[in-house]
Amino acid sequence: MCGRYASTRSPEDLSGLFQTTPPDPGHGLDPSWNVAPTDAVWAVLERADRESGLLERRLRPLRWGLVPSWSKSASGGAKMINARVETVHEKPAYRRAFAKRRRLLPADGFYEWEAVPASDTAKAYKQPYFIRPEGGEVMAMAGLYEFWRDPAVADDDDPAAWWATCTIITTEATDAAGRVHPRMPLALAPADYEAWLDPAHQDPHELRALLAAPAGGRLDVRAVSTAVNSVRNNGPELLDEVPAPGR
User: Fold this and answer.
1) Among candidate residues 246, 110, 242, the one with its CA nearest the CA of residue 176
2) What segment(s) does the record annotate as region Disordered (predicted)?
3) pLDDT average, residue stretch 93-118
4) Which residues are designated catalytic?
């Protein structure tokens, strides 16, 4: 799974990397070295402009933790942060979004945890690792998004009436990530961005072919401080390497 990640690039940098329209000035997000479920996160998606009807590639914030449009409440969103690539096209919670509402989440890298057994001098604990592309390039994590209407808000025009939420698609871990955890986010290569984001592209077999394997490139893995375990901690020091237990 992917339960935490880092996203520190500016919206200006992300707009250039993904060739999006400039983000709304009112939609600013601070850099985060400890993105957690239910946080607002930058997403790249394509939607038709309301006035012109033309398709636009946009950079906008979404809430991490997908709430299907048919949900009676938003309470389950925090549990739906990941969708398995093997079943994402057929699960009721994801299949409509898989057909029409796909997006990319830019990330510097992601965290996974490895269980460390107790010893004579220490209790058992989980050691966090930060995993990123070796070259430091952005990870474009594939995923889906949905809009959910909050029935507690009466006015449709009230921004609070609509929740825009998302999930990350995961796959079997490869390379260094597989030595830490069996699953990892599925990152797409730039050549596949257009086909993945295009809402008119709805053939499930062709879409699944884009998710056959993570984007090429090797991964760097480093042990980091257990400070990342708390969502209250957030800063570049979370990425500092520490000695890996037993390695």
Assistant:
1) 110
2) 1-32
3) 95
4) 2, 112
For CA atoms 212, 187, 219, 4, the dihedral sign is negative
pLDDT score of 174? 75
Locus of tokens 């070295």: 33
Q: Is pTM, for the whole model, over 0.90?
A: yes
> Residue by residue, what is the 3-state secondary structure of the chain?
CCCCEEECCCHHHHHHHHCCCCCCCCCCCCCEEEECCCCEEEEEEEEECCCCCCEEEEEEEEEECCCCCCCCCCCCHHHCCEEECCCCCCCCCCHHHHHHCEEEEEECEEEEEEEECCCCCCCCEEEEEEEEECCCCCEEEEEEEEEEECCCCCCCCCHHHEEEEEEEEEEECCHHHHHCCCEEECECCHHHHHHHHCCCCCCHHHHHHHCCCCCCCCEEEEEECHHHHCCCCCCHHHHCECCCCCC
N- to C-terminal Cα distance for the chain? 23
